[in-house]
Amino acid sequence: MRAFSRLLAAAVLLAAPSAFAHDYKAGDIEIGHPWTRATPPAARTGGGYLTLTNHGQTADRLVGGSSSVSGRVEVHTMEVTDGVMKMRELADGLALPPGETVKLEPGGFHLMLIDLKAPISEGAKIPVTLRFEHAGTVDVELSAGALGAPTMEHGGHGGKH
Ligand SMILES: [Cu+2]
Q1: What is the distance in A from the centroid of ligand 1 to the CA of 115?
Q2: Which of 53, 69, 73, 108 has the lowest CB atom count within 10 Å?
Q3: Residue ranges of domains in the chain, CATH in brackets
Q4: Using only C-alpha atoms, what is the Rg of the chain?
Q5: For residue 23, what are the CA distances in angstroms to 118, 139, 152?
Q6: Virtual CA dihedral for 20, 21, 24, 30, nearest 10 degrees?
Q7: How far is the CA of 52 from the centre of ligand 1 (A)?
Q8: What is the pLDDT of residues 90-116, one digit of tens each?
């Protein structure tokens, strides 16, 4: 009987991680810890961050997304041009080589929620549909953390879009 309950405890422990993991899958692509930051009241844009691991044998691409909270969702990169950090849309999407993990994080690759319908508040769950070239689409939720440092990297967006 004791052996059985120990076995049961082990089974519960093994099952637990998947119950708590904040991860998603689309085909061979694993999406880890999607999050965003709360935005100031007048913000028109927000960022989206997550990790993408390609467990498949072939390359894939994150080509875009959509969300009910914003007019558009784009995939952006940050680059230093003439000493100035600028962002631009990755028109061909973000490459996901087989066997590799690509991070979308503040200061690097990121999702850009453009034309926010309302500011993002801390603790909110922001629904986003990610679209991959081969793996198709998957619905994820971005967990909104606290308002970060002023998002100066997104300052140039106002007039551009
Ligand atoms: Cu951006």
Answers
A1: 12
A2: 108
A3: 24-148 (2.60.40.1890)
A4: 18
A5: 26, 11, 29
A6: -160
A7: 18
A8: 999 999 999 999 999 999 999 999 999
